[in-house]
Amino acid sequence: LSVVVPVYRCAGSLHELHRRVRASLDQLNVPLELVFVDDRSADGSWSMLCDLAARDSDVRGLRLSRNFGQHAAITAGIEQSTGAWIVVMDCDLQDPPEDIVRLYEKALEGYSIVYARRLAKRMPFSRRTLGRVYSTLMRLFGGVRLDGSYGSFSIISRPVADAFLRLRDQDRHYTLILQWLGYDHATIDYEPATREFGASSYTLRALIAHALEGVFFQTTVLLRAVVYLGFALSAAGLGLAI
Known about the structure:
Blueprint: E1 2-7, H1 14-25, E2 33-38, H2 45-55, E3 59-63, H3 70-80, E4 85-88, H4 100-107, E5 113-118, H5 125-142, E6 150-157, H6 158-166, H7 174-181, E7 185-190, H8 204-218, H9 221-241
Parallel strand pairs: 1-2, 1-4, 2-3, 5-7
Antiparallel strand pairs: 4-6, 5-6
């Protein structure tokens, strides 16, 4: 069982995250590896990961050459993982490590993907508004109904991980790619914890950029509409010139 954790501005939570993951998964009695991917965080996360790896042989630390973003870090972690099952979770302890056991047990019922759905999470008004706009865009242009209750917290099988890695898109969106791939899937519900360490790196500008990347990954409808509009304007301009 591999646990992949993208790390950015989470130095204060890493030792507690490691402790809780170990305490939770030791009861499963399965081989375990923890793959932490430092997305070039400037808060000392890498030195803490080196310390964890020195004390625990099941910890692997990867460091990206620069800050590429959460979904690139997830991809790097999945690519370097060796488990038959891969859990992906955030580093801020809002995803309870204790629920990894529930994800794993649900997957063993015969599902290739198990998503974790947040039952409730208080977010700023700007993010709630952007989430609604994003969901509307995806429904209009991609025919996809997105639920903002789903994040990256999930478990996938090795065949799903291999299929995920065969998609080499530069702009990654972990959850959208999983949905696009298909596979039998299930969902568990969980209560997210309050963030106690650091602050989210997703500014309003970053969220808008991420939303647009998701739209362009999922569908070419918007791109085609822009092309058609360009032809229409050119034709109108030609008509006026004549």
